[in-house]
Write a structure and sequence with these properties.
Blueprint lengths: L1 E4 L7 E4 L2 E10 L2 E7 L8 E2 L2 E3 L6 H13 L2 E15 L4 E14 L10 E8 L9 H7 L18
Parallel strand pairs: 3-8
Antiparallel strand pairs: 1-2, 3-4, 3-6, 4-5, 4-9, 7-8
Length: 158
């Protein structure tokens, strides 16, 4: 169990066990599918579809399920990309995020989870919206396992 001090509430400690999150980078040509998070931690930031790993579920199945549930998009050829260690100090949350990547198979992006997101769309790797969600930013900036020299971080060129 990790005890974090919430800097926005000086003197109060928030204790939470780390949770397992799964994020999926869905590519369609030179574009990536992103959602704008709302009403959840990281509200207002942009990330890929994703969510919590359910009991007995594989990370790949979780990624495909979350993407379809949240956005109506179905991904295929899902494969491992990396892991980030994400500490949301202000919210007193700690996630280990398993990152996967897949290719667009079918569907039109829609906001299927308005209690978690406000927008969804395809973005060029050269023109990502901001701010980025901490977990996604950690991956793109190479703060992940395996380290960047062993992993090709998603970019327009890869």
């Amino acid at each position: 169990m990790v005890t974090l001090v919430n800097p926005s509430e000086e003197g109060q400690k928030v204790t939470e066990k780390p949770r397992v999150g799964v994020g999926i980078i869905i590519r369609r040509g030179e574009e990536v599918l992103l959602i704008r998070r709302e009403y959840v931690h990281g509200s207002g930031s942009w990330s890929t579809p994703g969510g919590h790993l359910d009991f007995g579920e594989s990370p790949e199945a979780c990624a495909v399920r979350e993407a379809e549930e949240e956005t109506g998009i179905v991904a295929t050829n899902v494969r491992y990309r990396g892991i980030t260690n994400d500490i949301f100090e202000a919210e007193g949350r700690h996630y280990i995020t398993i990152w996967l990547e897949g290719e667009y198979l079918k569907g039109e992006p829609v906001v299927n989870a308005p209690h978690e997101m406000s927008e969804v769309g395809w973005f060029s790797w050269d023109d990502l919206p901001s701010p980025l969600f901490l977990s996604f930013a950690n991956l793109l900036e190479g703060r992940c396992y395996p380290p960047p020299d062993e992993l090709t971080i998603p970019t327009k060129a890869t």
